[in-house]
């Protein structure tokens, strides 16, 4: 016979915070996890590097709201302290304290109460200045980053475009360059240079161009009465802030007016023309994109065919089939005398079916036995 008696368990850590190095303006996250019964409470305390400083408790919203604490009390207790936009004054020792003593928050009883502690250091290093440069000459683009005040040893460099690593080396120079063949219009975007130091130092170079608009198809065909769909997109950086459409270079088409519907989403735009009309809708349409650097456009030519024109290929096939059928019919008619002769040989067919009938009977008899 068993009775479930809740065990009183002293708090213990299962995960302790880890020391970290960061640059000013970065953020840092420390994590702590404890078990015990009842579930322990977790607190965060901080001691700065000045000799006169003592431990002070940290709260959610402390340091002008740069401190966030997220705790969960569910089977275990977990707590994450997150400090944004670090400054040199955030350097110091961070302590995770856990206790499940029922008297833990009675200040008068405090000497007896046991809090277990786990510490991590956060080093905040002044963010060094990176001078970035971008030049475009003789069909070549040169991007360079210059770390003007190296802090720790440089173990190499890396160039990235989004998540893609473009170039990497293990040199210790404080200057790194990356070259691209081609025009800047073809290579716009956000490039990153990374100095492999501890912690890593990153610089950013933006290659910005006016929108490099392309038509999804340079010419579109539609049938009279159908819906015509014209599409343009902009793969370049920076993104488009607004799209407009116009016809034959005239004033811009208003969304929802007449038979027009415009749908634009970020780097793509679509013009739909309902119930296409040959006279009114055939022509050149311009999609115009605007970003902070200027304007770009592309032209789509729309051709509207009559319903009947759409039928012509089908009618052609029908006519071909008819001609073939007629030819075969005439040919077969002429062969008729031969076929009469063939019929004599065909006499074997009923014989064959008789034979199978016999076989069937045999089987049935055998089954009966
Ligand atoms: C510690 O000393 C510095 C000057 O050395 C002073 O600015 C700071 O306010 C002191 N901090 C505390 C907590 O007393
Ligand atoms: C707090 O932590 C929980 C569990 O880890 C997570 O689901 C939640 O999104 C966090 N909340 C914030 C504000 O970070
Ligand atoms: C970060 O802190 C600096 C001063 O330390 C301030 O000038 C800057 O605006 C802050 N940045 C953000 C994103 O809060
Ligand atoms: C890097 O910056 C330093 C300091 O501004 C300058 O003296 C040096 O010439 C720069 N190097 C390059 C390759 O631009
Ligand atoms: C590059 O572009 C991004 C996105 O528009 C922007 O947040 C960032 O500040 C730009 N960087 C520089 C160095 O101009
Ligand atoms: C358009 O932007 C989206 C994200 O907003 C991106 O995933 C997509 O690749 C972009 N398309 C082109 C053609 O650049
Ligand atoms: C045009 O109007 C339709 C509905 O009438 C709407 O769904 C669409 O978002 C509008 N497009 C723009 C670019 O405002």
From TrEMBL:
Pfam families given in the database record: Ig_3
UniProt entry keywords in alphabetical sequence: Cell membrane, Disulfide bond, Endoplasmic reticulum, Glycoprotein, Immunoglobulin domain, Membrane, Receptor, Transmembrane, Transmembrane helix
GO cellular component: axon; basolateral plasma membrane; endoplasmic reticulum membrane
Annotated TM spans: 310-331
Keyword set includes DNA damage: no
Membrane topology: Single-pass type I membrane protein
Protein name in UniProt: Basigin
Residue stretches making up the Ig-like domain: 26-114, 128-208, 211-305
Localisation per UniProt entry: Basolateral cell membrane; Endoplasmic reticulum membrane
Gene Ontology biological process terms, A to Z: axon guidance; dendrite self-avoidance; homophilic cell adhesion via plasma membrane adhesion molecules
Disordered: region residues: 339-369
SUPFAM superfamilies hit by this protein: Immunoglobulin (SSF48726)
Gene Ontology MF term list: cell-cell adhesion mediator activity
Highest taxon of source: Eukaryota
Lineage of source species: Eukaryota, Metazoa, Chordata, Craniata, Vertebrata
Listed PANTHER family: BASIGIN, BASIGIN RELATED
